[in-house]
Amino acid sequence: MTDRTHHPALTTAQQAALTSGGDFWHTRALPEAGVEGIMLTDGPHGLRKQPEDGDALGIGSSEPSTCYPPACALGSSWDPALAERIGRAIALEAVAKNVSVVLGPGVNIKRSPLGGRNFEYLSEDPLLTARIGAALVNGVQSRGVGTSLKHFAVNNQETDRFRVSANVDERTLREIYLPAFEHIVTTARPTTVMAAYNTVNGVPAARNHWLLTELLRGEWGFDGVVVSDWGAVADRVASLAAGLDLEMPPSGREALVVAAVEDGSLDPAALDTAARRVLDLLARTAAARVPGGGYDEDEHHALAVAAAAQCAVLLKNDGGLLPLDPDGSARVAVVGEFARTPRFQGGGSSHVVPTRLESALDAIRATVTDPERIRFAPGFTLDGAADPALVAEAVEAVRAARHAVLFLGLPETHESEGYDRTDIDLPADQLALLDAVTTAAAACGTDVTVVLSNGAPVRLTPWQDRVGAVLEGWLLGQAGGTALARLLFGLDNPSGRLAETIPLRLEDNPSHLHFPGADGQVHYGEGLFVGYRYYDTLGVPVAHPFGHGLSYTTFGYDGLEVTPAGDNRFDVSFTVTNTGTRAGAEVAQLYVHERAPRLRRPEHELKGFAKVRLEPGESTRVTIALDERSFAHWSVRDHRWRVEGGEFELRIGASSRDVRLRAAVECAADGHRPVLTAESTVGDWLADPVGAQIIGAAMRAMADSVGIDTDDPLTAAMGASLPIGRIPAFVSSVTPEDIDRLVAAHREPTARG
């Protein structure tokens, strides 16, 4: 048994030992106390379990495991059910390999397309991130395996990643960077949360008491273990006091913890609590260590194929160029080294050694009836060196073909943990190849399709208009080659939708002037306006909007009905119909727009979605529930979520810029009244119903006593910004005691309701 209550009392030294790792991947075992050590491994999209007798850190030397689509692709599935299935499969492999905790998912928001680990994250939107992330946690933990929600918090860049202070205002934290963590903690109960490397508003995340204790535990009710990112702890005693339970890997500083307890600088209860939480983690993951677990490798690979097919996004398809005919006779030129050598995941600690790896080239040849119609030309090398001979060979292949499919993207060296990108362009050698191929294709009438492999957006504007179709493949895991072949030749219908906006150019991104900061500081100057919240609010042109994705069929929306379901709660129902000739899936998206907000808000925000699969001509009724939080903003003044009341527009459609249905709803104020003080302005008092009653007559009497015309707009505007406690300085007939009486009257229970 590993329950804390079944162990004898532990010494201070034993407690300190439990709060430090046993080695790089294991917690500390205490054989003398009957406490076993458990294994944690990387693996948000598959397991990176290092061999017990091998290099603990060596990337690329882990035991083979199924490599599912990384988060950059999975987010584009918009499918929580698929994420949960993948989570269950990863857990089965973890049980088979005696892994107790899988270090993931990563749910940081994609603030900039340059972020080096964006391929590990799901979306630019907190709601979509929250729903997919919670499904992954539920899937993994359904088998008794633990998870580690990461990287907590505001971890959006790799530049100076161990030290940089992410400086973010309170409202932006609450509305953009914390909601995914909040939702997953409160609904899925992850066994651990990983404290990030970076600093948050001047306090390192790994010893940030507000973040780890006041917010995570006190406000959200987290009851698991807070574990450090590997090497994130600079001051073990301070981190433990702040709420960090487990330092990984071990730093050998347990003696400092013991000494701090003995000299009174660390509360013994803090150490006891952290040790108890580690023991509780062992108990919560006990089912993961039951001998005899196994899994079907073929079944897991089949799931990887099905998942990858749902993640790719068809961005462009002029004239129905795709799908290609698998049984036809037209020659197809497959161009690009990525067709033969797949780029299927990012670099760094999440790198999974796959159980098998399928190339798109082999899969295309296996898909078509006549493989002889397929001609391959690599076109470029993976090292980025220009090679005119390869370009010439590719041009020759394209001239002899009816269709050309170009596999382009970013080499692994462009996207990895440890550093950020500096631009969003395809490599120069690939752009030169694309230019040569499209020029030749235009001259001889060859249709051109581009298939992309990348973990974050690339710039499309220099060349998108010169090709007929673009399939954004992201990074699709070990089965991506088969999935891409099935999509290109119509065996599957694309159903992915963009989880992040693709800008026309890097300079259009809202974080551009602030990323990645300097001198150890990065200022989140764009505030709330991340991704589509910025582009749609200002009407900035984009290459492709958030939520966009095409299909080989079409969908219609109608029959919108909005039904009140409680205080500021609504059930939004509408019908989606497959109006085309192929079976397919649509992602119906619901955005909320506040028509006259008191505070500046984005044009609209995603508040619900549903992925539905329909046969040709089939219809289904979709219902999305909106709760009060769907209409709320974070009030910095009141330090809480607020709905101030007013009219909201509900927008339903196929992307943030493809709205099909609209309806208006009226929300009532949530009933919360701010506490008014002498430092509250005249405008604050008049905006509050009770405050206005209390101060109204007093204000008129004050104005009359000094001959001020309260109906004059300029006078009213100037007076609105004046704290009422300053009035005695301007109006001699008003005393500080008068102000005290007004404040006391507002605090009366009868006044405040």
Please provide a brief summary of the model.
The chain is of the alpha/beta class. The protein contains 23 helices and 26 strands.
Description of the molecule:
Helix 1 crosses helix 10, helix 3 runs antiparallel to helix 11 and helix 14 packs parallel to helix 15. The chain contains 23 helices and 26 strands. By secondary structure, the protein is an alpha/beta fold. The chain has a 6-stranded mixed β-sheet, with helices on both faces.
Structural class: alpha/beta
Strand content: 15-25%
Report the major sheet: 6 strands, mixed
> Count the strands?
26
Q: What distance lies between the first and last C-alpha atoms, to the nearest angstrom?
A: 53 Å
Which value, in Å, is the CA radius of gyration?
29 Å
Mean pLDDT: 94
Proportion of residues in helical segments: 25-40%
Which outline best applies? globular
- Number of DSSP helices? 23
Strand order of the largest sheet: 9-14-13-12-10-11
Low-confidence stretches: 1-6
